[in-house]
Specification:
heterodimer, A: alpha+beta, 2 domains, two-stranded antiparallel ribbon, B: alpha+beta, SH3 type barrels, five-stranded antiparallel sheet, elongated, binds zinc ion
């Protein structure tokens, strides 16, 4: 039985192997929601889903795609914006 | 629309939103582009053609194209050419110089990890310790 404070599902359960080859349950904080496009709301690829402390340790180039509006807009919406800016 | 000398805007990748010129038509689908973007093969689906044209020859050099871009008032960043660097040689066996390798390892490793390193390199260190004594 889990301890009383672990009965609620606010913490997520992760099974990890210990050095002694046993599997134990660890309780970790839940990950934030997936990054989404600012215009259409599509899920963005290439953006890691980590807690802020872990995001600090990831390099900038690994946190978002290397294109204009990378990590903010999906590629479809980015193309729309560029095309509109040309036509003006 | 897709022809040599056509100004375009790139839509995909790290160069998206930058202007370029078609320098050569390679294929039904692919063209060679140059200008604000890097000189590269590009799918025509990744280009948005503009109204303007530039007079250039087929396969024009990037220096000519950058000169044409300056006339239009678009500044092109000059990129440095990559020089071929020598491959680092791996020294093995007798050629290895312990004096060259040791300081690198000490710099990289944190204070905590110094202890196991000392154990491994114990025979080497003994030789080192003797040298200052002689001096
Ligand atoms: Zn979108």
């Amino acid at each position: 039985m889990p301890a009383g404070r672990h009965k609620s599902r606010t913490l997520r359960r992760v099974s990890r192997k210990t050095p002694g080859a046993k599997t134990t349950l660890q309780y970790k904080k839940r990950k934030p929601s997936k990054a989404k496009c600012g215009m259409c709301g599509a899920v963005l690829s290439g953006v890691p889903r980590e807690r802020p402390k872990k995001m600090q340790n990831i390099s900038k180039t690994k946190k978002r795609p290397e294109r204009p509006f990378g990590g903010v807009l999906c590629p479809k919406c980015m193309r729309k914006i560029i095309k509109e800016s040309i036509r003006e | 629309m897709i022809e040599i000398g056509r100004l375009c805007v790139k839509l995909a990748g790290r160069d998206a939103g930058k202007k370029c010129v078609i320098a050569d038509v390679l294929d039904k689908n692919f063209v060679l582009i140059d200008g604000e973007t890097r000189r590269r093969k590009c799918n025509i689906r990744h280009l948005e053609p503009l109204k303007d044209m530039i007079k250039i020859k087929k396969g024009a050099a990037s220096s000519e194209i950058s000169a044409e871009f300056k006339k239009l008032g678009i500044e092109v960043k000059e990129t440095k050419k990559k020089e071929k660097a020598e491959k680092p040689k791996k020294l093995r066996g007798k050629d290895k110089k312990p004096s060259e390798e040791k300081p690198k390892k000490e710099k990289k490793k944190a204070d905590k990890k110094e202890k196991p390193a000392e154990k491994k390199e114990a025979p080497k260190k003994e030789t080192k310790k003797e040298e200052p004594k002689k001096k």
